Amino acid sequence: MGFWRNQLAGPTDPSRDAAWDDPEPRKGFFTDTSICIGCKACEVACKEWNAIPQDGELNLLGSSYDNTGSLGASTWRHVAFIEQTSDRIEQARESGSRLVQLGMPSVGAPAPASAAVGATSGAAPAPALAGVNLSDPDFAAAQATAARELGSVPDFRWLMDSDVCKHCTHAACLDVCPTGALFRTEFGTVVVQDDVCNGCGYCVAACPFGVIERRDGDETVKNAGIAQKCTLCYDRIGHDQTPACAQACPTTSIKFGDLADMQSQAQERVDTLHSNGFPEARVYGGNQHDGVGGTGSVFLLLDEPEVYGLPPDPRVTTADLPDMFRKAGFAAAAMLAMAVAAFVGGRK
Amino acid sequence: MQDLSNSDCIVIQGSNMAECHPVAYQWVTEAKLKGAKVVHIDPRFTRTSATADRHVPIRAGSDVVFLGALINHVLSNELFFKEYVVSYTNAATLISEEFQDTEELDGLFSGYDDDRGAYDPKSWAYASKEAEEEGGTDDQSGGEIGDPGSGHVHGEQRSEQAAGDQHGSGGPPLEHARVLRDETLQHPRTVFQILKRHYARYTPAMVADTCGISVDDFAYVARAVTENSGRERTTAWVYAVGWTQHTLGAQFIRTSAILQLLLGNMGRPGGGVMALRGHASIQGSTDIPTLYNLLPGYLAMPVAGQHDTWQDYIGAIGSKKQKGFWTHADAYAVSLLKAWWGEKATAANDWAFDYLPRLTGAHGTYQTTMAMLDGEVEGYFLLGQNPAVGSAHARMQRQGLAKLKWLVVRDLNMIESATFWKDSPEIETGELSPEDIETEVFFLPPASHVEKDGTFTQTQRMLQWHHKAVEPPGDCRSDLQFFFDLGKRLKAALAESTDERDRPLLDLTWDYPENEHGDPDAEAVLREINGFHLSGDKAGQPLSAYTEMKADGSTSGGCWIYTGVFADGVNRSANRRPGQEQNLTALDWGWAWPANRRILYNRASADPEGNPWSERKRYVWWDQAEQKWTGEDVPDFPPNTAPSFRPEPGTGGPEGIAGDDPFIMQADGKGWLFTPKGMVDGPLPTHYEPQESPVANPLYSQQSNPSRKVFPRKDNLWAPSANQPGSDVYPYVFTTYRLTEHHTAGGMSRWLPYLAELQPEFFCEVSPELAAERGLENGGWATVVSARSAVECRVLVTERMTPLVLSGRTIHQIGLPYHWGVGRDAIVSGDAANDLLGVALDPNVQIQESKAGSCDIIAGRRPRGEALLRLVEEYQSRSGTTALTGNELRTTGDGS
Prior knowledge:
The complex is a heterodimer of chains A (348) and B (896).
Chain A: H1 2-6, H2 14-17, E1 27-32, H3 41-50, E2 77-85, H4 86-102, H5 137-149, E3 156-164, H6 172-176, E4 182-184, E5 190-192, H7 202-206, E6 213-214, E7 227-228, H8 234-237, H9 244-248, E8 254-258, H10 259-275, E9 282-284, E10 297-301, H11 321-347
Parallel strand pairs in A: 1-10
Antiparallel strand pairs in A: 1-8, 2-3, 4-5, 6-7, 9-10
Helix pairs in contact in A: 4-5
Chain B: E1 9-13, H1 17-20, H2 25-33, E2 37-41, H3 47-51, E3 54-56, H4 63-76, H5 82-88, E4 112-113, E5 118-119, H6 155-160, H7 191-198, H8 204-211, H9 215-227, E6 235-239, H10 241-244, H11 249-262, E7 273-275, H12 284-287, E8 294-295, E9 299-300, H13 310-317, H14 329-341, H15 365-373, E10 379-383, H16 387-390, H17 394-401, E11 406-410, H18 416-423, H19 425-429, E12 440-444, E13 454-457, E14 462-466, H20 479-493, H21 503-507, H22 522-530, E15 532-533, E16 555-556, E17 591-592, E18 620-623, E19 628-631, E20 709-710, E21 732-737, H23 753-756, E22 763-766, H24 768-774, E23 781-785, E24 790-797, E25 804-806, E26 809-811, E27 813-817, E28 840-841, E29 853-859, H25 866-879
Helix pairs in contact in B: 4-8, 4-11, 15-17
């Protein structure tokens, strides 16, 4: 039963589930936002390699240095720019300190299977502790105040985060795709086959991160009407090449490699930042007990996920299938029972 | 560049390194991951500030006050690296009795000449024995000490020819190698004591009132740099055009050089003053210059009336009596002339010296533009340059182009400088009309860098070869082919000429092998630059080092500092051994001039006895057993000169270098805290306000650099400064800059959708406080008005801009990226920020002041057509500005 349940939610090896007999080690990104300089080389390199058309109307969005807005059919890497003053920085430190108090979710750590349902985001406390508030909010607040007095809370900061498809363990886009256009690769990543996709758009609604979209445009636009998203450079990694974005990143903010390695690098970097006095650092994604069974793209964030436009509690739609079936089953059983009762009653 | 990762502290000031040099910034990231502290000092909070440990906002153009206060802090608290300073700098050297400091003359140094608006540097000389009866330990007694100014051009012409830049890789010549020194540093006329007095008034309070930097922020930076300097630790300073583009730019850099010498950070790993260059080979274009006043390898361009004969010239570029490698400047110059004119350059005709043109004045880009307006320039070549958008006072540039007879534009795209005649803003205002413009524009398509072979010389003086990946499409040609072919055609056209003036062209060696498309072999050009033996048993073989160059015509070489790049016939710029297969110095990656040396003056990384200052900062040291210098890098020192070596007094040349003279290109072997020669606007940096400034100089009644270059013209008006009437008409400071997403004037980015969409529109950056004061809305429109023009832009209201409070008065700064221009061909276009700028230049290098200006900002879009001119005129008239405003060089009294 556990195996079948994990086909819909929770920890699993997605490549084996997809019937790859001898899959490659699962690949993924680790995007370290603490050393991102917002140069957008990743956006450009991605577009260049994947021949993605111009996105949008060439308007200034008035949203700091972000004129792309979000991930979409024609933007597979997107750098978010967030300007914050000291109040918000303190809040970030407080929330970070609370996570530290609780113990950050150590990646890949065993946790009760029952925790899979109702897990929060990778950035949140370990599921086993969810709902049990061990933290002392006063302590966290005091720590933040002390930091401010020491001058370590700056008046201002500018956060940058290069977002990308999460290549989820339980990928809603793939699960709902009726044509088989989306498939799981031997690297554990999720890729659209342009020539199979019929543009139905189910995947667009299913993605809990808002990553995949159908491309707008007339027949002159490549793949217009087709669902498009990051392929984790399937055509490069199959030839031992680094994905274009990671290759172009000048500060190694975007790292590429075996997912397990990326996860441990992320945890290591968070530990370093904590010991350097940045309690706001946290890992996002990669927690196999979260609502998507863990992501293939891991991020180091310096504030809560919402601040970066990331869902705090992403949840694959299929995770609810057992429950829905169970309820539907109950309903069916109840109706059957009523029907039987009606017949039985009618005989009277 | 990778040496930055050895730094314990990196101060980035006058540069937005992460945005404008993102690839180099990997080494700052690396240093930071290793625990280094990174401080960013800049008017704006940029993407560099975002990853720095601290951002310190500063008023544009006030950097000398901040750095001077650090110098004062280091001197008054005895925080300098004493052994280094005494042994390796000219701190102990005595200066002439004639010298008078700005502190004595209210903002002028001795030697200022009002008529020429320039200095005679005679009184800044090192002290002479004769005048030195009353004291000072004369450690190298005797000998004549000449006037370091003699034999050199003075005054108007001197300053016109941008003398400071001529000395490039080395110091300017002195007539002597002997100086008077007091190594106790107590003599009142030692450089050390002069320095102390000069910067005594540069205090944290002065910094707060002038730069708008809090005492806390100052203390933070002071602590960071002093705690991270000394035997065990090093600090690096990084700058770019945020320092150079001022009327005092060269002196900004000098100030940091003084500080870094005092802290003992020069010539050592993780130290130095790192100049970041903004284009792929802009370093190469100064080494083998596109500058009017230099010949390759920083040899001076001869000046009419000063260098009329070969002897005059050779005497002026390197005295045989001074120390170091500039004494062989004659060998470098002869080899250059042999490379250019081959057999035609002989001892009998002074190596064809008379084939070289002579300078008659300044011919920088701005003087040339004004000459165009005066109808003195007929034709113009633009290669990789878009002055209609990218040069200061872009309006003047476009109007100048409209006066040419012909214009050749070689560019990847149909840039605004090629289409100005039909779509420039002046067409819209009615100032120009296509029917009246007689300029014939020839647009020629070039090959891009992937379509041709060649080198890039980057920031670190490193040449890196790039191989042609694909053939250029259609009619596109490499620049090399274009010029080679142009030369051949000109030679053919003049073949029958008997006119003397055509000889230099006709006699020029012009014989590179070509491929089947007529493209010359770029390696053959590099080989010629490297140089050959011309006679003897090595005839025809490449030179392996510039020390092999001879002044007797037996060697040729197109740029002495590049000699060695083709040593043994191997193109060393194409070396590509991956970094992980070598140590961090990576000597097998590319080739850096001179002699593949990665850190200049690296003898200073060892103590006077030749041992590393510390294990942690070990780099180059004396190997006693082998009796030679060795280490991680190519030692920058005569290889077998022992640390204890002391030459016979009066010995010139490399043999005159003592074992503890690490600055081997300087005439006295020492790092110059005080420059007796070489800077035309003063031997010590002193603070002056920018050409346009809302602030009065707090130090002196001398408001601005008294030797800056100004051009009083009706089309080059200035806002009244400081407290003059009308200064409130243009109350705000603006500063121009680049963004990561675009490249300079946009020729390589505004035509590419992937880049254009990332920063699609011209915008200004303003603080929420200024937005409130002027009713500006985020995402809305604003019009920025200067004394020259008005432009419109979208508004970004951001906390990244900080209003500065100076003595209780709030100063608002406005940020303006300058990538957009008015035209119809690019994917994105917009008004050009450079239209707002005027032309006032640094006297050393003739760079325009584009980092600080005065303006007003109002909500909404600008008027169209002629109404735009009326808006600008209305402001001008309200401020009362005239052609004289701001152009008075001397503003201090007759203190002479």
